[in-house]
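Quick one:
INPUT:
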């Protein structure tokens, strides 16, 4: 059973234009993916799948497989499997992986876009994997989270992740169980996850039981509850250069089961327009420890919610954040380009262009 912080009533707090002073004045530009080879310009397809293929085929360009499952099962360490453009239906379970520096990679064929409808489940035995430039629509018959990641050294780059408001999207690790390690989510779009009306349990990225997760240069919007939830045992999470907009809440630090999420850095993000609770907040059940060394700094945080940064629950420090609306071109249409003169562009960087270049 999944447990999530309960809703709490809050008094309206006076709005202040600043928490500290924004100390970053330089223009950030998107850099290369921190994991070598993930964003390579030239894709070398070892094997192929196509909607009109056959799983009795050879996986060649001329005789492609039909299913992503058959394709990824056939890959060897260091190889890339390419999905021809189109829609693939069916769950994918990944039980093994590549080797350090030689991941198994599943990607769209160059110049085309593949969309996979079904649950992506990465077992604890799977490691050194990359999912690149894919449409991942996690709708499945049991309404289980997708992608569910229990393995280690797994990268998502340039992906469009959603499930049409049917369940949680990313679910990393298992509370009290499997630990997901070294998971990277970068230059992707995570949107419209979680059932509506919001029930306080369904999020865009649910960081449960993890070590060393990096969430960077993503657009995270329109999710029913938290854009990102760190609960109950997310350790050393980096959340940097993201647009986290129009979710039920933005980011939540939390704990439970005798643990608390700690060591997180939340920096250079836009966190705005949360429509249920605060943009940044925390919650810890009675009798459990609170998080330590969680830092929220140098972000651009919108002021439309009652309490943009709610520190009443403790467990995180907030300083040098700019409290102001971000001034997007057309956020309602998911156009997150900055208008000229937006005070947030120099704090956060051009996330929209970074994602567009990857997808």
């Amino acid at each position: 059973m999944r447990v999530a912080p309960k809703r709490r009533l809050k008094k309206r707090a006076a709005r202040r234009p600043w928490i500290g002073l924004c100390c970053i004045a330089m223009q950030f530009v998107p850099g290369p993916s921190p994991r070598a080879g993930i964003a390579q310009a030239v894709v070398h397809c070892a094997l192929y799948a196509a909607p009109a293929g056959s799983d009795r085929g050879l996986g060649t360009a001329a005789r492609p497989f039909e299913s992503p499952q058959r394709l990824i099962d056939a890959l060897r360490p260091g190889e890339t499997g390419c999905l021809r453009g189109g829609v693939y239906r069916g769950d994918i379970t990944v039980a093994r992986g590549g080797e350090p520096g030689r991941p198994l990679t599943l990607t769209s064929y160059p110049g085309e876009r593949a969309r996979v409808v079904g649950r992506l489940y990465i077992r604890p035995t799977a490691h050194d994997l990359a999912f690149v430039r894919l449409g991942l629509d996690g709708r499945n018959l049991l309404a289980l989270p997708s992608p569910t990641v229990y393995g280690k050294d797994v990268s998502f780059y340039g992906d469009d992740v959603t499930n049409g408001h049917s369940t949680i999207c990313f679910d990393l690790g298992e509370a009290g169980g499997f630990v997901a390690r070294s998971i990277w989510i970068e230059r992707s779009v995570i949107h419209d996850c979680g059932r509506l009306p919001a029930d306080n349990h369904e999020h865009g990225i649910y960081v449960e039981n993890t070590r060393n997760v990096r969430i960077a240069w993503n657009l995270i919007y329109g999710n029913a509850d938290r854009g990102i939830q760190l609960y109950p045992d997310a350790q050393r999470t980096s959340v940097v250069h993201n647009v986290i907009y129009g979710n039920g809440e933005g980011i939540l630090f939390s704990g439970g089961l005798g643990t608390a999420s700690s060591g997180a850095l939340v920096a250079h993000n836009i966190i705005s327009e949360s429509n249920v609770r605060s943009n940044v907040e925390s919650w810890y059940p009675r009798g459990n420890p609170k998080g330590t060394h969680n830092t929220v700094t140098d972000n651009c945080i919108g002021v439309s919610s009652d309490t943009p940064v709610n520190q009443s629950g403790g467990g995180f420090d907030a300083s040098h954040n700019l409290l102001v609306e971000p001034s997007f071109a057309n956020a309602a249409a998911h156009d997150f380009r900055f208008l000229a003169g937006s005070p947030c562009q120099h704090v956060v960087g051009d996330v929209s262009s970074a994602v567009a270049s990857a997808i």
